[in-house]
Amino acid sequence: MTDIYYSSTRGGERGATASQAILKGLAEDGGLFMPDKIPALDISPAKMVGMTYREIAYEVMKLYLTDFTEDELKSCIASAYDSKFDTEEIAPLARADGAYYLELFHGSTIAFKDMALSILPHLMTVSARKNKADHTIVILTATSGDTGKAAMAGFADVEGTRIIVFYPKNGVSRVQELQMLTQKGENTSVVGISGNFDDAQNGVKKIFGDREFAKELAERGYQLSSANSINIGRLVPQIVYYVYAYVKLLEHGEIGEGEKINITVPTGNFGNILAAYLAKRMGLPVGTLLCASNDNKVLYDFFCTGVYDRRREFILTSSPSMDILISSNLERLIYLSSGCDAAKTKELMASLAGEGSYSVSDEMREQMSDFRGGFATQEENAAEIRRLYDKTGYLIDTHTGVASCVYRKYAAETGDKTKTVIASTASPYKFLKSVMEAVSGTEKGAADEFSLIPEMERVSGVPVPAAIRDLEAAAIRHDRQCSPEKMRETVSDILK
Fold it and tell me: Of the candidates 2, 7, 4, 10, which has an alpha carbon nearest to the alpha carbon of residue 24?
């Protein structure tokens, strides 16, 4: 097996090992680490039939994390995908109305971020050991709702780490917020900012790019890293579940060997759909990748026009984890589509930072032809949740609703009958009020979200997840707030 090395999308760093890239999170020049080549699957999906999720995870991840020994990687996988998940399958497929919903929410925080953030702390601690890191690793993360809780749950009380999460104070669901504010762990900190997710994400990136602050922290015994999907250690585990889904469809006789599937992903920061694209580049038989946006349709407009423009109104929706105008992982697709031209990528990212927009060439757009954009309005999303429930009894959350709606519109417009996997990214319990309003067709007013739990349990037929059941009585442990301008100061204060 060939060794894979990682370089910055902006050209400033080259030749990092997987463990070095995981440990750093973000390259020193602000770029994102990418492998020097995308490895091909060395075992066909047909040969994976009968394998467990853990076994498939090893077959995929070993191709990228080439400086991890077999024992190290298998130990990380075994520690991650265990009884924290409420099903042995880890990521089961549910068939409803002709599509296959890949349920990525069976982990401890009932959102898809568990799939990668269950393993990242283990990859991080092995990486620290390999590189003889003697500083405390400070995980600095911005969240649009789910990453923060999943990251804190993963890193809580992990020796040699601290974790600080910034989230938009008024931009997440009440369940998402309480999941973060009640998080245990002596090494965890949560800060609500008076801004939106893009403000939080930009603030975190600014801190990472602050060399003077990095030096100051190093003198205090700290080293910054990230649990966001900018970390390659987040992205690689996400490739696994698309391969797993294909293998399961094969295993259950839903598709034939080599038959192409389409994949639809509700998309905010672009990491989840990028993982599906990487699976395709590795040889998984995938046709169209449907990038589903909500009313913040910056990605839809990009795939339609080739122009990425963040200069627009930021809309708060019922799918808050997608309320994003700067999709960080798109930089990786830009890099790949330019033929791995780091200078070009750097130029476009500078334009985004300075002017608020950039345009890609026709040649680059051609390289992105696997993608197709779609969007669903707030009203269309609610209507799709209700339609699917009324027709099949299957209940989905507000992010999966966007993806499901975009898939139905695409199929109707194109007549494409290719079997489709829809990434189902959160349990409907995580967005109780919005989902129950969609199903009933009526506003729930100022109703406390928790009062809707019995109704959702009855409607869905799915028992209340432990993550929700334990939340109502949990004590608030975090109450910090700051403005986006004070994020660096807040980090410094937390680490005193």
Answer: 7
Per-residue 3-state assignment (H helix, E strand, C coil) for 372-426: EEEECCHHHHHHHHHHHHHHHCCCCCHHHHHHHHHHHHHHHHHCCCCCEEEEECE
- Spell out the alpha helix ranges (H) of 62-210: 70-80, 113-117, 120-130, 147-155, 174-181, 197-208
Structure tokens at 307: 């122009």
The SS3 call for residue 252 is coil
Predicted confidence band of residue 31 (pLDDT cuts 50, 70, 90): very high
Give the pLDDT confidence of 261-309 residue by residue, as tens digits: 999 999 999 999 999 999 999 999 999 999 999 999 999 999 999 999 9
Report the SS3 class of residue 5: coil
Q: What is the DSSP letter of 121?
A: H
- The amino acid occupying position 452 is L
Residue in 106, 219, 113, 124 with CA at minimum distance from that of residue 167? 113
Structure tokens that stand for 320 in this block: 């808050």
The span from the CA of 366 to the CA of 306, in Å, is 10
Closest by Cα among 112, 200, 205, 103 to 150: 112
3 near 35, Cβ under 8 Å? no
**pTM of the entire predicted model:** 0.95
Amino acid at 34: M
Residue 125 makes CB contacts below 8 A (sequence gap 6+) with: 158, 159, 160, 161
Max alpha carbon distance in the chain (Å)?
Answer: 61
Residue 483 makes CB contacts below 8 A (sequence gap 6+) with 193, 194, 195
